[in-house]
Design a protein that fits this description.
Layout lengths: L2 E6 L15 H15 L3 E6 L4 H6 L1 H10 L6 E4 L2 E5 L5 H8 L2
Parallel strand pairs: 1-2
Antiparallel strand pairs: 1-3, 3-4
Length: 100
């Protein structure tokens, strides 16, 4: 089974889908992650505001943030490799990352 790890910028909640003005990109991305889960992909999602320890524990993320700060977020990691930075990938990109 494939695993995707998402390192989000600071969000108000784990998915960013809360509050009075929700970013439609975050809504789409959350739906795409649910679709991946339904297709057997393991998803781990970390929010910088709530889980900074996860960012510090990942060498790849630490290196990216050392170079670009929060501008590199969100970071998507698959099989120990950064596959996307600074944007939420579309469903077809996510599917391609894990071979669906």
């Amino acid at each position: 089974m494939s695993k995707i790890e998402i390192y989000d910028p600071p969000l108000c909640c784990p998915t960013g889908i809360c509050g009075p003005s929700v970013d439609p990109v975050l809504v789409r991305f959350a739906a795409d992650l649910e679709w991946l889960k339904e297709n057997g992909v393991e998803i781990a999602r970390y929010n910088l505001a709530q889980q900074p320890d996860k960012f510090a524990a990942c060498e790849l993320v630490r290196q990216a943030m050392t170079l670009a700060g929060k501008l590199c977020l969100p970071i998507v990691v698959v099989e120990g490799r950064i596959v996307s930075q600074n944007k939420y990938p579309e469903r077809d990109e996510l599917a391609n990352f894990v071979g669906i």
